[in-house]
Structures are given as C-alpha cells and as structure tokens.
Write a structure and sequence with these properties.
cell membrane, membrane, about 170 residues
C-alpha cells in the first residue's frame, strides 16, 4: 500500500502542485476577504499610497460589475457558469497531469483557484467581495480581489502559452 502511494505521488507530483496552487489561492482569497469584511466598513476607503486603496465593495455582477443590477438571477447564473468552467478545468488538468505542459497547467490552476474563490462568495453571500482599488493615471480601475487577479494572471498565461509555447501555438 505504501509503495503504491509513493508511486502514485511520484507519477502525479505535477498534478499535486496544481492542486496546491488552487488550494492556496482559495485560502488566501477567502482569508483576505474575511479580513475586509471584519475590518473595513462597506464603501470605506483606506489609502495605501497615491495609486492603491483598500476598500470594501460588494459586486453582485461579473467583471467590471456587468449584470450587477440584473435583479438577482445573475447570482445563480454566474455561480453555475463558474462551477461548469471549474469542472471542465479540473478534467483538463487531470488530462494534462503527465504531459509536459507546465505553463498551460499553471495558468489553468490560477484560473481555477480564482473561479472557486469567487463562486464561494457568490453562493454564500450573493455577491463577491472586492477590496483592491488601483488608480491608473488618476482614474480608478474597477475594484478587484485576489481571486480576480488570479483569474487575470492565469488568463494571460493561457494566452502566452497558446501564442508562443504550446506545440500547436498560433505562430508554429
């Protein structure tokens, strides 16, 4: 039994790395959101420096608050959509577990961790807690959270992989 477990771990160590990435994103995201809920009043702004604020906002919609005033149906629509995408990514990562596509798998893991982090909020609260506000040339960029940042970085990695790294990249 012990030998079989060691063999399984050895053959699946990259998959375990991807699972660890997902778990760490979810834990850090939920921890940061709980700190915001407990310590920052809704819509309060705490300046960090001249271009970053910590705030507490509730986003009932998707990215950039799209659908935020849709009447409530978006909570379950966005939750089901995120869950379906997450399940697809889990199967994709499992299929990639023994392949040499580490960059693609890390990008997928980042997207998966962020999606799960936000769907937890959406199901529990009915909205997503956003708390990082960045100013670009003096204008506020829509507030976001660790899960959103993870999804964005993961998506950029997926694009870079598709364009330049994967065997069937656009430029091959």
């Amino acid at each position: 039994m012990n030998l079989n477990f060691r063999k399984w771990v050895e053959t699946h160590k990259l998959l375990l790395l991807y699972v660890l990435i997902v778990i760490l994103i979810i834990i850090f995201d939920q921890w940061a959101k709980s700190l915001i809920i407990k310590n920052v009043m809704l819509y309060e702004v705490l300046p960090v420096n001249s271009f970053i604020n910590i705030t507490h906002q509730e986003n009932a919609g998707a990215a950039f608050s799209i659908l935020s005033n849709a009447g409530g149906w978006q909570r379950w629509f966005l939750s089901v959509l995120a869950i379906c995408i997450s399940v697809y990514i889990v199967f994709w990562l499992f299929r990639l577990r023994n392949q040499d596509q580490i960059i693609l798998s890390i990008g997928l893991s980042l997207v998966l961790g962020g999606a799960i982090g936000n769907v937890i909020d959406r199901i529990q609260l009915g909205y997503v807690i956003d708390y990082i506000q960045v100013f670009i040339m003096g204008w506020p960029f829509p507030s976001f959270n660790i899960a959103d940042a993870s999804i964005t970085v993961g998506a950029v990695i997926l694009i870079i992989d598709a364009l330049f790294i994967s065997k069937n990249s656009v430029f091959d």
